[in-house]
Amino acid sequence: PTLLSTFRSLFQMAKIERLSIDGIQLGEGPHWDVKSQSLFFVDIRGPTLFKYTPATEQIVSIKTGTDPVGFIIPVKGKKDHFVIGEKLNITLIHWDTTSNQIVSKEVLDTLPEPSTNRINDAKCDASGRLWLGTMTDGKDIEDGAGSFYSYMKKGGVK
Q1: Among 67, 88, 122, 140, which residue is least crowded by beta carbons within 10 Å?
Q2: Exposure string (b/e) for 109-142, b if CB count within 10 Å is 16 or more?
Q3: Which positions make up the binding site for substrate?
Q4: Residues of the domain holding 136
């Protein structure tokens, strides 16, 4: 079998399912957490954090405040701790997903961007460095208005 035929056979077996959650305005930033077997994601406009566990079909959600939230990434080795992007802030939160309470919230850094921008999405690499992008926070997307950053807790924003 060729690589192409293997690829095709994988997708013939694939099943696409819609996760139906009422009220989501702009769902984004999915992150699969292997340890909890859960999908974490955000509603940017909500602004709401979500945890979905497919095995139980349980959905837990919590509003973060009033600023748009662009991503959620679990912190390795720290149960219920997450890095999130709120407006232009990189924020560490302790979200107890059992009691559904935000126990603590600490702004780690703020991006040097115009107040008309927001964090759009982010991912971590294998070394724990956070890569994130920004964009305008309005309905009109402007060419060149956003930026791309890397962040390490000890080195800050670059």
Answers
A1: 140
A2: eebebeeebbbbbbebeeeeebebbbbbbeeeee
A3: 118, 120
A4: 24-157
pTM (predicted TM-score) = 0.85
**Among 106, 138, 132, 107, which Cα is nearest to 120's?**
132
pLDDT tens readout for residues 8-38: 776 776 777 888 888 899 999 999 999 999 9
Query: Binding site residues, as ranges?
Result: 28, 118, 120
Task: Confirm whether 13 is domain-assigned.
Answer: no
Q: Give domain status of residue 4, yes or no.
A: no
Q: What is the DSSP string of 91-118?
A: EEEEEETTTTEEEEEEEEEE----TTEE
**Per the annotation, where are the binding residues for a divalent metal cation?**
28
Round to whole Å and give the CA distance between 76 and 122: 16
Reported as a single tens digit per residue, the pLDDT across 103-145 is: 999 999 999 999 999 999 999 999 989 999 999 987 777 788 8
Task: Find the CATH number of the domain harbouring 86.
Answer: 2.120.10.30
3 domain-assigned: no
